[in-house]
Amino acid sequence: MKKSMLLQASVFLAMCVSGGVLMHVSQSVRRAERDLTRLDLSIEREKEALRVLSAEWSMLNSPERIEALAKRYLDLDLPDAAQLVSDPKKLEALQAEEEGILIPASLDSGNGATAPVYLPRKPQKHEASSNTPAQGETRE
Fold first, then answer.
1. Which residue of 28, 48, 124, 134 has the smallest Cβ count within 10 Å?
2. What is the pLDDT of residues 26-58, one digit of tens each?
3. Non-local CB neighbours of 3 within 8 Å, separated by 6+ positions
4. How far is the C-alpha of 99 from the C-alpha of 75, rounded, in Å?
5. Which residues contact 35 (CB under 8 A, 6 or more apart)?
6. Nearest 5 degrees, angle CA 127-CA 128-CA 130?
7. How far apart are CA 121 and CA 75, in angstroms?
8. Which among 71, 85, 78 has a CA at the least distance from the CA of 116?
9. In the chain, where are the structural domains located?
């Protein structure tokens, strides 16, 4: 009888411990599922933000927008044929003659090859306007 009571007590104790472990595992799984749901929502928000930023990046880097901004703020003109220099050795002589700095560029020769050329920078507006009278002014 004592053996059977000891056996029943040990079985009861094992069942209580198993129930406690089961409850602990169950709570851990629920917590993990909540965390997983929260992380999934966070990932979706980040993906949406990435799509928005990608669209904004594409819009900001569109060639049409960059060309419009360049025309608006850089005040550049296309070079004349006389401004193109195909021989880099002539560059030093041109730099001595020109007051502006020459910009390296390339010229498409039509057959798929490009040739190095140097374009002089356009003089600044304040330099060009200092030699001519402003509108409505007369020179003495």
1. 134
2. 999 999 999 999 999 999 999 999 999 999 999
3. none
4. 18
5. none
6. 70
7. 10
8. 85
9. 24-74, 77-129
Amino acid at 116: P
d(CA 68, CA 78): 15
Strands (E), 21-113: 102-108
Q: Are 125 and 75 in contact (CB under 8 A)?
A: yes
Retrieve residue 44's tokens.
């979706």
User: Residue for token digits 């356009």?
Assistant: 122
Can you read off the two tokens belonging to residue 82? Answer: 């006389």
Low-confidence ranges of the chain (pLDDT < 50): 102, 127-131, 133-140
Total length of the chain: 140
Contacts of 115 (CB under 8 A, 6+ apart): 86, 106, 107, 109
